[in-house]
Design brief:
16% helix; disordered N terminus; alpha+beta; single chain; 8 strands; 2 domains; 39% strand; eight-stranded mixed β-sheet; Nuclear Transport Factor 2, Chain: A; 169 residues
Length: 169
């Protein structure tokens, strides 16, 4: 199940626009009493003229859960907004699965890139390879109330592209 929250203005002690670290600390301070700081990691901090936007991602079993997010908008007066799209884990299938190694996922990526552009000659530099979960869905035009997740390798490149390779053997 997906949750959305809007919470407006909670005054904090420090001016969060001093630096990224203070903004991140304000986010942690805000999330702790709401019991929202468990099972998350801070994925991004973006600054604009008057605020920071902190984007947290959901973790399950210490692995990322793609398409989940929690965004905090931190302004001089404190937290201005919280928006959250989260997945409730309602059932876990305990049968063992075979996960392909990261090296095999990289070979699949090479094949995928070649199929996209057989004449490609530019190099691709890999920034990170992480195992996580992604919702299996083919419904792009309606809200998703439930679904099944599968393990995927998320491969990020230096160019900022993300590729998802199914991790099941």
């Amino acid at each position: 199940m997906t949750h959305y929250y809007n919470i407006l203005m909670k005054t904090l002690r420090k001016n969060p626009n001093n630096n990224r670290n203070e903004a991140a600390e304000q986010g942690r301070t805000y999330l702790k009493p709401l019991d929202l700081e468990e099972g998350v990691y801070l994925a991004e901090i973006n600054k604009d003229t008057h605020s920071y936007e902190l984007t947290y991602k959901q973790l399950y079993d210490d692995k990322f859960v793609e398409n989940s997010y929690m965004r905090l908008k931190v302004v001089n007066q404190g937290i201005q907004e919280l928006e959250r799209k989260w997945f409730d884990i309602v059932r876990v299938d305990k049968k063992p699965v075979n996960i392909i190694p990261a090296s095999k996922a990289l070979f699949y990526l090479i094949d995928e890139l070649y199929n996209e552009d057989p004449n490609r000659r530019s190099e691709v530099y890999i920034r990170s390879v992480k195992l996580g979960y992604r919702l299996e869905t083919h419904q792009f035009d309606s809200p998703i109330n439930s679904g099944e997740v599968s393990p995927y390798w998320r491969i990020k490149t230096e160019g900022g592209n993300e590729f998802f390779i199914k991790a099941l053997e």
